[in-house]
Structures are given as structure tokens and as C-alpha cells.
Amino acid sequence: NHLLLAFRVAGKMSVKAAKTNNVTHHDLDSKIMSIESFDNGESWDNNTLKTIFIPPKGVGVNDPALSLLKNKKVLLRVALLNIFKRNQYINIKQPIVSHRPENGFISTLKGNLIIESLDSGKTWKEIGFVDKNNEASCSRENIVELEDGTLIFSGYNGAPKHTDSSFIFRSFDDGKTWPSKNIIASDINSKRGQHYGENYNETSLLNL
Questions:
Q1: Are 203 and 156 in contact (CB under 8 A)?
Q2: Which residue in 75, 81, 89 sits closest to 178, CA to CA?
Q3: What are the φ/ψ torsions at residue 29 (nearest 5 degrees)?
């Protein structure tokens, strides 16, 4: 079988932090690459290795997830984060989701970006944000296609304002827009703060 793998490259920023026993997780020099296998994953063809997405300046990328639609389109969902140095965080309205004092970096969620390939991963085009009309969310999920062609995927948000709630997002145009957002689970106690109630996050969705 022909396999396509997408993966995150953390870059030198993460390597430098690791040498001092620190963690970044959100990296300004991160990117998404892909590689292909033609023998069920027993070997991977270095000739197919390529960079498929580099985030804009000041943004890191995390959690890539691939989906193959019935019309043979390939969709890639990635999570984007705005990353600031401590002294750059001025008049930023978005809530902080990560603060690494040991590195001096602050992160806020930018949202989930959808990237499309019409030629089995050879070329890619950005087609839209899931979170354009909603509060930015985290996700490690691939996109699931329903019987009528509707696309869904699950995500979560909340911290640092309250504990995480989980949601289902829907697209009716192959991932270009995501106008529908429905809640899966949320703890009523979370309104008191991030450390009250239970978190409902890191979701995984399957169409049976």
C-alpha cells in the first residue's frame, strides 16, 4: 500500500532548550513535513521527503492530522500558536495557554488551520480556519467524513479561563468553513476557574 505520513519538526529552538533540561513544546521554528512509503510502511522513500507547511513569522505549528476524503482530497489539520517573548506580550487580548519562564516565551492559540491537497500530497493549499468564527481551540484529531460528505472533528478549549470543554465542529464545504460548533462535555464547576471541575479534552472521534 501507498502511505503518506505527516509529522512535526520542532527545530533548533526545541533542541537548544532540551540541552538545558527545559521544554518548549511550542516552537517558533517548527514546521510540518511529509514522507511516503510504497511497501506498507516497511521502508520510507527519502526522495518523497518534503516540507509541506511553514507557519508565518511569530507562529508555531503543532499536532498535524491527515484525512483522506471519498473524493480523494487529502486534508491536513494543524494547530497554530502565536508565540511571544515576554516583553512582546503587550495589549494581547488572547488568553495565555503556555508560559515558559525558563525560556521567556508565552503562547496563545491562533486556531486550527485546514490545508488541502488534490494530488495525494504532492502540493498543498491553505483553505481556511476552523476557529474563524469561534474561540480558538486545541485538537489532536484528524477530520472525519460522514455519509453525506459532511466533515466533523472534535476539539477543546478553556484554559486558562476555566477547565477544558470539548466540542464537535462541522463543515459542509470540504473544510473551507466550519459554521457549526456543538458542545460534547463541560463541567458546570469550570466557571469558577481553571482549577475547579474536570477537564474534558484530548478527544478522539470515529464514525462507526
A1: yes
A2: 75
A3: -105, 25
The CB density around residue 130, as the number of other CB atoms within 10 Å, is 26
Residue 165: the pLDDT is 82
**Interatomic CA distance for residues 130 and 34, integer angstroms:** 22
Q: How far apart are CA 157 and CA 136, in angstroms?
A: 7
Query: Strands 31-37, 45-53: parallel, antiparallel or unpaired by DSSP?
Result: antiparallel
Q: Which of helix, strand or coil describes residue 189?
A: helix
Instruction: Say what the pTM is.
Output: 0.86
Closest CA to 24 of 36, 11, 37, 35: 11
β-partners of residue 50 are 34
d(CA 55, CA 76): 14
How many CA atoms within 13 Å lie on the side-chain side of 133? 9
Cβ pair 175, 128 in contact under 8 A? yes
**Which helix (H) or strand (E) covers residue 112, if one does?**
strand 105-117
Instruction: Name the DSSP class of 141.
Output: P
The residue with cell 519538526 is 9
pLDDT tens-digit map of 21-66:
776 777 888 999 999 999 999 999 999 999 999 999 999 999 999 9
